[in-house]
Amino acid sequence: MLYTNLKHLETAEDFKKAVSENENVMIICGRMGPMCIPVYEIAEELENEYSHVSFYDMDFDNPASSVLRSLPETYGFMGLPFTFYFKNGKVVKATSSIQSMDQVKTILNSEFPVAVKA
Amino acid sequence: MDTGNHYDTIVIGGGPAGLTAGIYLSRARVKTLILNEGAAGGQMVLTHEIANYPGVETISGYQLSAIMKKQALSFGCKIRSNISIAATELYGDIKKITLSDGSYYTSDTVVIASGGRPRMLGIPGEDELRGKGISYCATCDGDFFTGKEIIVVGGGNSALEEAVSLTKYARKVTVVHQFDHFQAFEYAVREAEDNPAINFLMETVVASFDGQEKLESVLLKNLRTDELTRLRTDGAFIFIGYVPNTEFLRGVIEMNSSGEIIVDDHMATSIKGVFAAGDSIVKRYRQVTTAVGDGTIAALAATAYINEMKMQRKETAVI
Lengths: 118, 319
Fold this sequence. Notes:
Chain A is an alpha/beta fold. Chain A contains 4 helices and 5 strands; from the N terminus they run βαβαβαββα. Chain B has helices spanning 16-27, 61-74, 138-141, 157-166, 186-193, 288-318; strands spanning 6-12, 32-35, 78-80, 85-89, 95-99, 104-112, 116-118, 134-135, 149-153, 172-176, 198-201, 204-210, 217-222, 228-232, 235-238, 242-244, 274-276. In chain B, helix 1 runs parallel beside helix 6.
């Protein structure tokens, strides 16, 4: 159980729905640990600023999180949280362990740029 | 001056010292803003279970931080987390803190409670392989190393206690320590030495972490012989103490050679109207309880300073 203000993914179906119905998705898969909590808080703070991105979390100890844990992008990952960035249902970036606000923003800006209207 | 950006007090840091200062200041009707570079709670959230916080039998560091944050907010304290401070102007009656996004805040007083962070080795491969075999948190990442061989770097209480706890997962734990003796308490040393899954490499440092997609080996240097050897390993946990988060104040405020801020009994620093509390100050014992005590004193001293300033301004106005 994750005590965050983010939308929670509880099942594999939740996950499929989230990445198929939203163009830009960030999912943090972790526990309520010291390396994970700062990343949830960063996502909570960025939800308003990045309204074109959908932010979710998923409990690492929930067996359904195997949909994330088994992704090939996690090869070599040995630090929580595992954070995934999906564009049109495909993983475009994944990170392991704690990330700073600047690191997360850099990824969001490069992978999910806001289209500039002419 | 844009008064929307002006506060009576700005607290830098949102760990137990900063949040306590925020609680006391806001409750005393002092307009307070906490600027926090990380997540609220600071290093307190690193603690899985706190069993020695008086009045609370056991609580996780995360829960205790959440309560402190809620208390501060309930008294009207404003909190901005995950910001980055670009510049500080602490001399003069009005202090100014500028953030990296260009926004700024001013205040009459500042309480520095910027805390500390785990010390890193700063050697090749450490940044690249963090989360891919290198970890600073045994309770977070220990189970990724079930049945594997790992190293623990350090020789203090944390290093030895975590080495013992990691034997629940790892098949073999090698403690790598730069000195010929441990700085840890006797009980922690004995417990580690008695554990058959732990062995020790003394007077040895890690020169580099190596691996392609994940950590595969470390290059070790024996400090007595200068001999270099390569050790295959699946993981490395680093527990080599903490450094104060005071780099942004170097040359500005009086500190000791370790970068800890020098304060008096009232948590006053070398700059008028600037107070400091918690792990960023010179002190021997660093606990949540001592941080809370420091934060209380700093807040009360800052409140007294503000009241004095107000009185002086009133007198000047009358004259």
